[in-house]
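Note to self: keep these together.
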Amino acid sequence: MTATTKQNETKSLVYSTRIDIPVEMRSQVNILLNQSLATAIDLKTQIKYAHWNVKGKDFYQLHLLFDEIASEVEEFIDLIAERIATLGGKALGTARIAAKESELPEYPFDAVDGTEHVIALGDQLGNLRQIPP
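Structure:
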């Protein structure tokens, strides 16, 4: 069994629950939710990168803002992971999995001042897959 096959089996693994959704559908939903989980974890770490590394005249305000945004994203990470578990899946939320599975491109490490970080984070948010309501 290859590592990819084993990982796909783990992603689609569904435990018994009282939720009245067919197992195959819960499995597919959990695969999509785990993709969103990986991307959200990556986004949070990129925001923290900006928080730690922002420089310039607006340093303090942006430092606080980026930390607040990262905290908000953390709440969504928790919500996504708990939804996966509720549907009988495994929340695959390690840093290694997030790095491998995230839909986001790498954060631009040449961003230094506040404006560069704001633009970089805006670009990353723009890269997020739009999910219809």
